[in-house]
Amino acid sequence: MKKHLLISCxxxxxxxxxxxTIYKELPSRALNTTRDIKIKLPNNYDPESLVKYPxxxxxxxxxxxxxxLGQVHFQTYFKEMPESIIVGIVQGEExxxxxxxxxxxxxxxxxGKRFYDFVQNELLPYIDNNxxxxxxxxxxxxxxxxxxxxxxxxxxxPVFQAYINISPDYKGTMAxxxxxxxxxxxxxxxxxxxxxxxxxSSIKNTIRETSSVLKTLDTQKLTxxxxxxxxxxxxxxxTGALSKALDKIFEIYKPLDEKEINExxxxxxxxxxxxxxxxxxxxEEYFGIIKPITEDEFAKIVSIAEERDDLxxxxxxxxxxxxxxxxxxLGTYYLALHAEKLGKNKKAxxxxxSALTLSETIVIDKEYIKSKLKNLQDLATDDNxxxxxxxxx
Length: 393
Fold this sequence. Notes:
- The chain is of the alpha/beta class and 393 residues long.
- 51% of the residues lie in helices and 15% in strands.
- It has 15 helices and 8 strands.
- An 8-stranded mixed beta sheet has the order 1-2-4-3-5-6-7-8, with helices on both faces.
- β7 (189-196), α7 (201-214) and β8 form a beta-alpha-beta unit.
């Protein structure tokens, strides 16, 4: 019964998710025809908002769009990646012509070059002009179209910043040219490559050889990931590869976890506010989006500051939280905590009283702040009583 209920819920969820998809026919001068595209906007998308979203372009949108859509929804639900605009290109019978390539170089040729131009000069500008997009774009391709998406790397400023290559069937000298190109990047690029132990032998072997070379590249501009899945075929590896690829590309976007805390935060030599600010500046730099620091992350770095008796970090974190949200009690609470730890109880009392006039947070509510005030008042009463006893003696 439970199994049937779970299946029913999944079906209803998928039906609801896909029903929100926008279907459009996009006229193309490059192709001299129209092309069907699928667009899924974030659930909370507001065209009047200042919030911008990364763009994920799904080649082979006939069958890859839905798996990508499901995976993105799953990972955004758990705050593992940012909400994104997903665009699927329906290729159908045109797939052969879209991916047509030069036998020697593996680069787009004739009809393939026209499709290349359609994506770069018509589709991407259309999405940017009509939706709230950030500068961060992801290209996803499988098999032949995974070979195709690499062609966008061979420009001074690639239009995609991340490439998810699922079992790419590298053509001509594409693999060799690719390793050379990725070693001489001017801009940051995320490059994900996947195969499986049961993949097509010729494809698998070329991917293994390519990954071996890419792992040796000495460049700060390339972030390279490689996975070889177990037990999956050339087609069933798609879902697993998508999950791993999105997880790795957006790794820095995730909230602070225990691994990062142990390996980076605890060993950080500067003040902890510097660490968290630098972390979020990298998120903005990579993905072109502004993500606020969560209360949970503030709490984690404050806990570490207390653990290492780092009162300077505690004070700075309070100021940072106030700067991010002046209406929240969080920053003022941390400043009160800082004053209290310094033994400046009168100053701490003023901060706690001020925090009571601000908005509550999930953890720092008014009752909790009142309890902190009462502790200080009780402490002050005890100090006064001791002073009176000393005077009497």
